[in-house]
Amino acid sequence: MALTSNIRIQNRTGIRDYIAVLIRRWLVIIISFLSVLASTFFYARRIPDSFESYSTLVIEEQTTVVNQMVGSASRSLSFFEGILNSRTFQQALIDSIGTDQFLRDLPKYTHEDILSFINSNLSLRKTSYASFLRLVARAPTKELAYAMATIGTTLFRARCLEVTNEESRRGVSEIEKQLLLIRKTLEQAEYDYRSFIDTTGQIEEGTTPELKTLTEAYASSLAQLGIKEADLSAEKKQLARLELKIAPENKSRSPEYLQLRSRLRELEKERLRLEGLGIRFSGISTVDREIQGIEQQLLKFKETKNTQVDPATMHQWQELRKSVIAKEGDLELFKRRMESYEKAIGSYKKGNPDILSQSLELLRLKRSKEVYENLYTLLLEKAEEERIKSASSNIGVKIVDLAAMPTSPVPKNQTQLYLAGILLGLLLGLGLAFLIEFNDTTIKSNDDIERYVELPVLGTIPHIIHKKNDIAIRRRSSKSHKGVTVTQYPRQVFNFDGDDSVSTEAYRSLRTNILFTSPDKPLQVLAVTSAGPSEGKSLTISNLALAYAQMGKRTLLIDTDLRRPVLHHIFNVKREPGFTDLFIAHPDFDRCIRKDIKPNLSLLSAGIFSPNPAELLGSHKLEQLLEYFRTNYDMIFFDTPPIVAVTDATLLGKKIDGMLIVAKSHHIDRDILLRAVNTLRNVGVNVAGAVLNDINLSHRYSSYGYYKYYYHYYKTKKD
Q1: Which among 109, 158, 545, 613 could disulfide-bond with 557, CB atoms 3.0 to 4.6 Å apart, if both were Cys?
Q2: Is residue 124, in this structure, part of any structural domain at all?
Q3: CB neighbour burial string for 502-521, b if at least 16 within 10 angstroms, e if fewer
Q4: Could you give the CA distance from residue 677 to residue 685 in angstroms, rounded to a whole number?
Q5: Are strands 635-639 and 525-530 parallel, antiparallel or unpaired?
């Protein structure tokens, strides 16, 4: 089956890939987990002991005259929390306990720190029972916690009583002011009554039934008149406050606005008159339509000020207007009725002068005196009742359970902290592992090469373990003229005869894929390169050449990495003579090419040092050498320098059949590899494919674990 060079697969992520990430990043997970766990353990061990003491309170709501007058509602929890957190209460608690006791348990605390400590460690909590509260004090010592709970409960109860009774005291004060006024009026009424008796003498406190009825009706109406006037006055004030939201300001009220208001009042009186006559309409009457129209016109004066009137306010305005007009009409009728009473009484008095008028006047004065006496007595009783309730020690807050001395510290819940630390450590470790993994742009698998570089992967080479006989090449460092770097190269070339290891099978598979890359025109001259250094290209090309030689093909391996040659170290031969020695007029091929260094494998090392290798690889002489190589060998391999570093591989690639790129797993960045491939493609080099080197087969669930698993599976099968 032929492999195409334009393969692109979809991104497939399974559970095996996630497990592979966890295996690769196990160190990050372990370090994060242990760091969080150690921090949690350290924090849990450093948590100081804390003692807790509490008392139970019940809140009783009292129905007092003041509450009835002002309409006060039940106290909420926030009301009592506000008292508990007030600076006045906290300062009183410090003064009662003593600053010395706080400083003994809280050394180096300032006065403000103590206030903050009380604010944070003294709290009110609801219980499962309504109206029951728990005052909880927490402190580093049991003595301080107990003192804060016991003394705090007493002070809190007293402070609540002070606050709740303050309104009662203000109410009593208002009642006393009213008592003074009523007392003066009562004294005047008694004085008038006694003076009239002294002046007229003892007369009968009675009269004719007709006059008595008129007088009683007039007196009753007079009493009701005050109530009606007060009620009407209150509604007018409420209507005036409401119209401030609806009507424009006084300065902006135009004559047109005032005219509309007057017309609206007339229409509402007319509607009230019609309703009084018992006239009912099946739908909306003409008067109602006109009223609605005028209301909309009046609202437009307010809307010009960018103010919208909500429907609830509009409805309240309409109802208040109706009520005010109705009560005005009722009051007008009431006054007319009283005028008729006055006329009837005056007419009656003309016919019955002197004794009758004196008797009626005496009756009026007596009733007036009795009314003020009753009112004064009632106010005295209520004021005294309020004083008694305000002074009572059992009103408002009661103590149900007193605070007790704590015997043991509050549980620290260390188990929960450890569990939270374990969970947080695992989550942090997993998060960092996947974060690092997803931000790692190195080439890790065949999918990465095919997805990002769009090259077919012709082979995957497993990791080769370095042995004691590895090559140690000492070179002068490029960063320092005096420094020397030592590079380790594995001297792991395989004997493909009788070797069935995973590594040899990988190279055989690579050889097979190369053969089928171009079945009609097999690749005879092939170069192996890499994007950057230390990718394993020299070892790969050495074993690939051995794999071809094992097939019986005459194979020539040429080292054209003239800057840092390695092949002569791998095969343990001398560098000279070699490739560069062939660029003379009459080269000695037999002297430079080391034939049969392995069966069917010849080696052409780098040769003498050349100051400008690119000149040699781009010369016409190389084309002549290639003709010689093609004539005398079945397969020719070139080891070239990395693409990103120099242009040697690019120059050579245009003269040969194809180029292989070796990419080391988890080493080369995919952008660098793509740049290297594009460099070759831009000059017309045939990039046959890629070889993924140094993959990890140590775990079955790694990206290539099944490679090793299936190899051993088929190896044990018998035909």
Answers
A1: 545
A2: no
A3: ebbbbbbbbbebbeebeeee
A4: 9
A5: parallel
Q: Are residues 434 and 583 in the same domain?
A: no
Can you tell me the distance from the alpha carbon of 178 to that of 186, in angstroms, rounded to the nearest whole number?
A: 12
> How far, in whole angstroms, is CA 160 from its chain's centroid?
39
Report angle CA 5, 7, 9 to the nearest 5 degrees.
Answer: 165
Question: Between 15-24 and 414-438, two packed helices, what is the crossing angle to 10 degrees?
Answer: 100
Q: How far apart are CA 16 and CA 220, in angstroms?
A: 99
- 421 plus 486 within the same structural domain: no
Same domain for 633 and 673, yes or no, is yes
pLDDT value of residue 667: 82
Q: Is residue 275 a part of any domain in this protein?
A: yes
By CB atoms closer than 10 A (0-12, 13-18, 19+), residue 617 is buried
Same domain, 338 and 460: no
Residue 499 neighbours by CB under 8 Å, 6+ apart? none
Share of the chain above pLDDT 90, in %: 6
pLDDT of residue 248: 63
CATH code of residue 562? 3.40.50.300
284 or 185, higher pLDDT? 185
Question: pTM of the prediction?
Answer: 0.49
**Per-residue model confidence (pLDDT) at position 199:** 73
- Helices 705-715, 502-515: axis angle to 10 degrees equals 100
Q: Is the pLDDT of residue 238 over 60?
A: yes
Highest mean pLDDT pick, 70-74, 235-239, 304-308, 432-436 = 432-436
Give the domain range for residue 421: 15-47+412-438
What Cα–Cα distance (Å) separates residue 21 from each residue in 432, 445, 446, 586?
11, 12, 16, 58
Give the pLDDT of residue 116: 92
Strand, helix or coil for residue 584: coil
Residue position matching structure tokens 């003020």: 372
- Asked whether residue 678 is domain-assigned, the answer is yes
Q: Which of 330, 351, 372 is the last residue of a domain?
A: 351
CA–CA distances in Å: residue 269 to residues 214, 291, 323, 329, 436: 31, 11, 11, 8, 84
pLDDT at 4 > cutoff 80: no
Say if residues 589 and 619 touch (Cβ distance below 8 Å): no
Q: Are residues 275 and 223 in the same domain?
A: yes
As a whole number of angstroms, the distance between CA 638 and CA 660 comes to 10
Cα separation, 412 vs 138, in Å, equals 13
Residues 290, 429 within the same domain: no
- CA 335-339-345 angle, to 5 degrees, is 140
pLDDT tens per residue, range 335-381: 888 888 788 777 766 766 665 667 767 778 888 888 888 888 888 88
Q: Is the dihedral of CA 276, 278, 279, 282 positive or negative?
A: positive
**Are residues 451 and 433 part of one domain?**
no
User: In 10 A of CB 139, how many CB atoms?
Assistant: 24
Count how many Cα atoms sit within 13 Å of the Cα of residue 303 in the half-sphere of its side chain: 9
- Indicate the residue among 351, 376, 404 that finishes a domain: 351
Better-scored residue on pLDDT, 535 or 383: 535
Distance CA 394, CA 41 (A): 50
The pairs formed by 352-356 with CB atoms below 8 angstroms and a separation of 24 or more are 352/208, 352/211, 355/203, 356/207, 356/208, 356/211
- Interatomic CA distance for residues 471 and 491, integer angstroms: 6
Q: Which of 216-220, 283-287, 595-599 has the lowest mean pLDDT?
A: 283-287
Q: Is residue 289 part of a domain?
A: yes
Counted domains in the chain: 3
Tokens of 145: 């916690």
Same-domain status, 706 and 575: yes
What is the residue whose two structure tokens read 């990043």? 25
Strand pairing category for 525-530 and 658-664: parallel
